[in-house]
Amino acid sequence: MQTNPFDLFETFFGGSMGGFSGMDQSTFRTSRQNTVLQGEDIRYDVVLGFTEAIFGTEKYIILSHLETCDTCGGSGSKAGSKMRICSTCGGRGQVMRTEQTPFGLFSQVSICPTCAGEGEVISEYCRKCSGEGRIRVRKEIKVKIPPGVSKGSTLRVRGEGDAGSKGGPPGDLFVCLDIEEPSDIKRDGINLYSTVSISYLEAILGTIKKVRTVDGTNDLRIPPGTQPGDVIALAKQGVPSLNKPTIRGDHLFTVKVAIPKRISGRERELLEELASLSNGGFVRTDAKPKPAQPKRVHLEKEVGASQEDTDKSKAAGDWLKKLTHFAGSIANGAAKWLKENL
């Protein structure tokens, strides 16, 4: 005669399992509690453009996930059919394996592999989901990207993961962001960084350069006397703060001064003339000797010289005076650069 192992436990420990509180005979049948489990989460990767990450956008994604079967409501059984008792565990939801050991009888209880602890099995399966209780569906979802997100940020969309088994609640959708960054603009927090190149004359005299920003092309004012490595900021042209979009960073430009390696003879003469007019009277020695210049012959003017010659002499004096005044303001910087770079 076959002995039921559960009856042996009842014989030794009784219906109350030896008086332990909360461990009665139903303990070996309690897996059939119809507990529902939440569905699994889903990850989806999205690549954003640089300006999309800064100003925010909306993305439509095609998602494939599991949804509860609308025909059987997640039960997996055909409408109108009844559940039947599991023949493996006899409706207990658990199975027991008993072995004889040198130390006595050893029994191990585990969940029934046939009914997964439910104690009942489906007699007729739902045709739509084949008894799974869930079906795979392709769905278009709109995801709102807030301004100021960074590379590696993750957005959580609740309830868009896989549906749980037996009608359980769905998991969540996690959208992981990657950002395409341009080569000429770098980001650090809410600030942006770029480089602007100017000539040495523009550095001395100042200028206005057209620069690229996330808001389009803007004017960047270079003040006179700008030094290499100086940083000029365009205020509130950076990235909005993720939690406070009204707060925005700056776009910082590092100035790079281009010093020419070769200049024309005329340029050299002008620079040396400007240098000679500066304080200190610096004059650069030519690498190559200049060709001998013909000596000017000074002729005494005759009494009654023409008024035209007088006007020309006066104009030349005015021009030299203006040149001297202009050279005094920039010759110091030009002379210094000539010593170091030319």
TrEMBL record:
Residues 282-315 are annotated as: Disordered. InterPro entries: DnaJ_C, HSP40/DnaJ_pept-bd, HSP_DnaJ_Cys-rich_dom, HSP_DnaJ_Cys-rich_dom_sf. SUPFAM superfamilies: DnaJ/Hsp40 cysteine-rich domain, HSP40/DnaJ peptide-binding domain. Residues 297-315 have a biased composition (Basic and acidic residues). CDD domains: DnaJ_C, DnaJ_zf. The keyword Metal-binding applies. One of its GO terms (biological process) is protein folding. Pfam families: DnaJ_C (PF01556), DnaJ_CXXCXGXG (PF00684). Gene3D superfamilies: Heat shock protein DnaJ, cysteine-rich domain, Urease metallochaperone UreE, N-terminal domain. GO terms for molecular function: heat shock protein binding; unfolded protein binding; zinc ion binding. Keywords: Metal-binding, Repeat, Zinc, Zinc-finger. This is Chaperone protein dnaJ.
